[in-house]
Amino acid sequence: MDIVFSETQLVHRPQQYGVHGRLVTPLENPNRAETLLERLTGMGLAHRPPEDVGIEAITEVHAGHYVEYLRGAWSRFQSLKNAGPEVLPNVHPYHAGASALGPRPAPRTTGILGQTGWYIGDLSCAMGERTFEAIYASAMTAATAADGVLGGAPAAYALCRPPGHHAYPDRANGFCFFNNAAIAAQWLRSKYEKVAIIDFDTHHGDGTQAIFYDRSDVFVGSVHTDTTEYYPFFFGYADEMGRGEGEGCNLNIPLAFQAGDDAIIAGVERLIEAAAKFGVEALVISAGWDAHKDDPLSRLSVTEVAYSKIGELIGGTNLPTVIVQEGGYSLAAVAECAPRFMEAFGR
Known about the structure:
This protein is an alpha/beta fold. The chain has ten helices and ten strands.
């Protein structure tokens, strides 16, 4: 199996992350990808760089005006008097797309501060001078991995960094700018009539849900920490099952704080069963290792043993599969969980 990854993904080096009322050093940093690449290639998996398949792979799932904002945001922000080293919002609109999950129109404001509030949803998406290069490369990594599967590979691993599943059609959130899993799923749709995204990151993939919520061709299923008191807070509830043509094509399985291996494994089993009932022909896996009990963001009690079983379950579907990297912020846990998953997946 190929590990698709570009060194350009490392040039996004955020310096600030707002959480619990203070700015701290970001947990999402280049070390995550470097650790994963070292461990996975050490297992004998081949590494290859992504191809530039074009901006259209991104605009298939993201609003063009949002992409253009991200492309020019840093240089525009630097023109502000007393601008800091990174783009961060200091205002947010009341209308944030919560009532209608699809893309909003471009904002009426033309200033960089107002647009930053419109397009950047929280304080975890600080943008530096080279952030756009990194997020573009991450998106190309997802599309290239999907292209490999379209070309006949049974599976490919898109080592995406920054991650993507919190990115909405027109808004960055939760370390995520472009929704890599959505890009991969849309790419697979050129061949497969029905694609399923299965997400076992500890956080609900609210951006992924938003992108496909009204569609019947992509099933989105997520097992994650209960969002009542946990990020992303506003979505991820069990009664969110899709809308219109997409009704019944969305399944959320929230887990109580301190839930362990049995709970997350059972959740993945339910998602696989639901995807099979949906008639899935190809899979995209949003793979996060941050449910592990040692992850600094985890509120669960999951151990590395669970990832072996999850890999076995997903590998057992024998479906064309694109594995897309999402979260995981303990380097020690990442180094243990990802190889266990991959070893079991490939049996």
